[in-house]
Amino acid sequence: MVPHRKCAGIGCKLREHIRCSDMPAADVMRLDNAMVVRAIARDEKIFSQGADATGLFCLRSGHTLLWHADAFNHKTAFRVVGPGEMMGYRSMFGDDAHAATAQALTACDVCYYPKKIVLQLVDEFPGFARRFFRTLARDRGPRDALLLRGQHIPVRTRLINLLLLMNTNEICPDNGTCVLKLPMLRRDIAALLAARPESIARAIKELGQAGIAMFSGRTVTIPNLDALSAETTGEQLPLNSSVPV
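^ that's the sequence the OP posted. Answer follows.
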């Protein structure tokens, strides 16, 4: 099987960049030939904070947690990365060491692209470069930690923010139900959100009673994503409504 066909099936952001840049097939093959796929076990680190950023990582399957450690080794998790998403590009383009650690929440398959080939293609194809500029401009990086762990933010809102961050690559019908598969236990969610397990349980119950997000084990059913998002701003939407864009 040609590697990029499998990646395209999960909504890979890198493949989207390639498609929108009209890169010739021969150059796409250059990238594919340089790609290395690694199987990562749960809790294994994909890259570590402070290590050289030698390339670009794309998650083909599984989920990964990004966290940052301060000078006192206090760890702050700030993002859950799902299939199709890229990692490590901020440090790679900045020619810096990794500013965070990527650790597998579940067993993962990770595609690795050496820095040299990625930068060559960025130099050769302006459309490819522009797509990365847009991605870099929209990447909040560790600032997302404030959405997940800010003590001034109610636990219920922190939980909604986590669901919204995890929804990046889920396929949700415009007027249908979105279903998320959580890659972690509720106690892990509590640790990620800096909240007590009982507070998480209460928030889950409240969201279910409101019909905004229903939890069953690790499966979360969201009838309307716009209504869920509106909860973080205080705006209330009917569950069958949609926000024009």
